[in-house]
Amino acid sequence: MKAFVIVPFDGVADGEVIPRRFDVGEEIGGALAAVALREKWAAEHPLDHDADGKPGGSLPKAGRGKKGKAAI
């Protein structure tokens, strides 16, 4: 999950132990992004459509790993 900070706040990024100030416009991820979204300190990342932390969307499970002709 990724998000952009819309309200400055103090927090601890995933994998860190020292809190710091996150300013407007910063990109955040992981559990920090989830909390910031819930508290309305951040907005969803416009390219993370399926909240997996990667741009775009993922293929449905049925379409993963299959080779051959595409269904038309």
Quick recap:
The protein contains one helix and five strands. The chain is an alpha+beta fold and 72 residues long. It has one helix at residues 30-38; strands at residues 2-5, 9-11, 20-22, 27-29, 42-44.
How does this structure look, described?
The structure is a single chain. The protein starts with a strand and ends in a 28-residue tail after the last strand. The chain has one domain. By secondary structure, it is an alpha+beta fold. It has a three-stranded antiparallel beta sheet. A two-stranded antiparallel ribbon has the order 2-3.
Tally of helical runs: 1
Shape: globular
Mean pLDDT: 79
Distance between the termini: 32 Å
Radius of gyration: 16 Å
Report the β-strand fraction as a percent range: 15-25%
Q: Roughly what percent helix?
A: 10-25%
Q: List SSEs in N-to-C order.
A: EEEEHE
Which features would summarize this protein structure in a list?
about 10% helix, alpha+beta, 1 helix, about 20% strand, globular, three-stranded antiparallel sheet
Layout of helices and strands:
Blueprint: E1 2-5, E2 9-11, E3 20-22, E4 27-29, H1 30-38, E5 42-44
Antiparallel strand pairs: 1-4, 1-5, 2-3
